[in-house]
Amino acid sequence: xxxxxxxxxxxxxxxxxxxxxxxxxxHRSIAGQIEFWARxxxxxxxxxxxxxxFVAESLASMAEPREQATPFVPRGRKA
Length: 79
Hints:
mainly alpha; 54% helix
């Protein structure tokens, strides 16, 4: 299956409405929001010692375009 392939699934209407609300806030599609939740859940299960918020923020950060990133400069160095 290619990365752009899609599959229809049935989900609970309450979960759909929560995804719709969060998708609007996070500037994602509803499908993108549910996919994000699934990636966070999978990563959290794979890394039970990490806080879920850390996992979610890390995945969101990794998805951001690199050209908009601010380079990290250690305190001891000048840019």
